[in-house]
Specification:
This protein has 645 residues and is mostly helical. 65% of the residues lie in helices and 1% in strands. It is globular.
């Protein structure tokens, strides 16, 4: 008579085996990171049949790429065809082949690679040059204008460009200026070698201008004679601008006449954009001076964006329109500029042209799409009937090896690896498959992937997946205590952490509501939480208690305006107050002119999120413009203590 294991015992044994193999995988990963091939071999054998077995094989091959047989790599690539690991290993192998200049094998394998970085592109161009492909140099030329350091294997391409006279001295000056603008002095010194010796920058002067620009200008302003001298002086002036426009502008008359009109215009453009970033009302005047001094070089798209923002704060709709129309064609297609261009056109009575911009924009599910919809006279309501993935679609998605590997990596708390595997697996998915994948992520508690995957759909949407509401029961009590709008708080948490309970930012903020240690400690003291320690900030209930208390605090001290409170939550109450104007300011303009790119994007997304949450949660609807409100002038602001800032 046969004996059967009880079902519960079988599950326990199965779970134990999985846990054991999980531990083996972590050990294999650690051995790989340590470069210990023997130890890796031991654990790789134990991982047979495990969902992450391909990683162990990848680890082994990656450690041996310097002397591995090509057939071993090809076997792995064939067995794992189309996977993230196959593409990654192929890229590493191609770099090894390129370094050894094994061009025949490189040429055969390179076309199949999907992720091509600068090093691989330069190897490919090297191979083509070796094969006398004349087009290779033409394709290599744009690489030269990078503001960042490039791999060493790109250098032969630049030398070939120079020899073919496809890289001019002016091209070198152009990249030097771009690199110094970006503050990459070490890269600038490397680029400097491409100038004729009698024209090159003085490296010692460049170092002094970097460390103490004011001292450099005081000492050298009477010695500005050559192109190199002028470029270093301009760089020193840009360094002064980092602390604000005042010091650089005060020094400007002392060096202005030493520069030609194009160089003067260049500095004035930077002075103006830095002033605009500081919400300085002098910015528009300096932009005008830059244009009047010399038409070249033209303002960059970034500078034109700040000219537009300065004009918005000044209510100068003529300049708003002119600035946007001067941007590159690609930049003008951004939703933000289509919206503000339409608003500017409306002030001129050009309603038909404005609506031609607003109509297509209003179908986009984002901040400016919502504002465009309201400009067209529509208030966001319940979204259209969502598309729900069927059981078979979900089951099929769960069986995909890449999805299974991603979920296993998340289970092991290897979030970075899990996200790379997930994003690779869903590339090229249509809307139906994206929503099936999002549902799989939701069921497995990987809320950030559920949201980001559902966010990618183009025509079929499920807003309940885009705007998930985890921990709702835990949140309700805190919302009631603090009298906060649920839709707004959910919109903020979605932006802060994507509902990852142990999320930690590079700055040290933790938990669902991303509390900084000092803020959490201050709030815990205010709430009289006994025996508080920072580890508690990751616990869901404590994090929500601290976060909602602080959010209520900043909301109360900032005129009960969610717009200002959102800005304060990200950048601090003091900054949110400083960004007001001397006169009442439309909330949308306040949001658009926030100086910090991160905070500007954050505020727009939080307020946009809150609109969708209000709709999906069945709350009373109000327009986004109503949520944004009108920001009161600085003079009416209540003061905040240094502790609260």
């Amino acid at each position: 008579m046969k004996k059967f294991l009880p079902g519960l015992l079988l599950l326990v044994l199965t779970g134990t085996a999985v846990a054991s193999q999980d531990a083996d995988f972590i050990a294999a990963r650690q051995a790989f990171q340590a470069g210990n091939s023997a130890r890796l071999e031991t654990y790789a054998r134990r991982l047979q049949g495990h969902v992450l077995e391909p990683y162990a094989a990848y680890y082994q091959l990656s450690l041996q790429l310097g002397n591995i047989d090509a057939n071993a790599v090809k076997k792995f690539l064939s067995h794992n065809q189309g996977s993230f690991l196959a593409d990654r290993l192929q890229g590493e192998w191609l770099k090894t082949l390129g370094k050894k200049q094994q061009w025949e094998l490189f040429t055969a394998e390179y076309p199949a690679l999907i992720n091509k970085d600068a090093e691989l592109i330069c190897y490919s161009l090297q191979q083509r040059l070796a094969a006398s492909d004349g087009a290779a140099l033409t394709e290599a030329r744009p690489l030269w204008f990078s503001t960042h350091d490039l791999p060493k294997n790109c250098t032969p391409l630049f030398e070939a460009l120079t020899a073919a006279r496809l890289l001019t001295v002016e091209d070198v000056w152009t990249r030097l200026r771009l690199t110094l603008e970006a503050g990459n002095v070490s890269v600038a010194k490397h680029i400097n070698r491409y100038l004729p010796s009698d024209q090159a920058l003085n490296a010692s002067k460049l170092d002094v201008a970097t460390s103490n620009p004011l001292r450099y200008l005081d000492k050298q302003r009477h010695e500005i004679k050559t192109r190199a001298d002028r470029e270093v002086a301009l760089y020193a002036l840009l360094r002064l601008l980092r602390s604000g426009p005042d010091q650089a502008f005060a020094y400007w008359p002392k060096v202005r006449e030493r520069l030609d009109p194009a160089e003067q215009s260049y500095f004035l453009g930077h002075l103006a954009s830095q002033a605009a970033r500081r919400l300085d009302p002098r910015a528009l005047g300096w932009f005008r001076q830059a244009a009047a001094t010399h038409p070249a070089p033209p303002l960059s798209d970034t500078q034109l964006a700040w000219q537009t923002r300065a004009a918005l704060r000044a209510g100068d709709w003529k300049t708003v329109l002119r600035s946007i129309e001067t941007m590159s064609a690609a930049e003008q297609q951004a939703g933000v500029w289509r919206y503000w261009k339409a608003r500017a056109l409306k002030t001129k009575g050009r309603i038909t042209e404005a609506n031609a911009l607003l109509a297509p924009l209003s179908s986009e599910h984002n901040f400016y799409g919502q504002l465009a919809e309201e400009e067209m006279g529509v208030v966001i309501g319940i979204p259209d009937e969502p598309y729900k993935a069927g059981a078979q679609e979900i089951a099929a998605m769960q069986q995909l090896p890449g999805i299974q590997r991603a979920l296993a990596l998340y289970r092991l708390n290897l979030r970075a690896e899990g996200t790379r595997e997930w994003n690779w697996s869903i590339r090229g998915f249509d809307d139906r498959r994206l929503l099936a994948a999002a549902e799989v992520a939701r069921r497995n508690g990987v809320y950030d992937r559920a949201i980001s995957t559902a966010d990618r759909t183009v025509q079929l949407h499920d807003f309940s997946l885009r705007f998930l509401t985890p921990h709702r029961e835990a949140l309700q009590n805190h919302l009631q205590q603090q009298q906060l709008d649920e839709a707004w708080v959910y919109g903020l948490i979605r932006q802060e952490s994507r509902f990852i309970t142990d999320a930690r930012s590079s700055a040290g903020a933790t938990g669902l509501m991303q509390l900084m240690p000092a803020t959490a400690k201050w709030v815990a003291k205010k709430m009289s939480i006994k025996n508080y320690h920072h580890a508690l900030a990751n616990e869901v209930n404590t994090n929500l208690a601290l976060g909602t208390y602080y959010l209520k605090h900043v909301l109360t001290t900032l005129d009960n305006q969610p717009l200002l409170a959102s800005a304060a939550y990200n950048a601090g109450p003091g900054r949110a107050r400083q960004w007001r104007d001397a006169r009442p300011l439309e909330g949308a303009i306040y949001a658009e002119t926030i100086p910090f790119s991160e905070t500007r994007d954050y505020v727009k997304k939080v307020l946009s999120n809150s609109m969708y949450y209000a709709s999906t949660l069945g709350h009373r609807l109000q327009t986004l413009q109503q949520r944004l409100g009108t920001v009161a002038p600085k003079s009416t602001t209540n003061g905040l203590s240094e502790e609260e800032k």
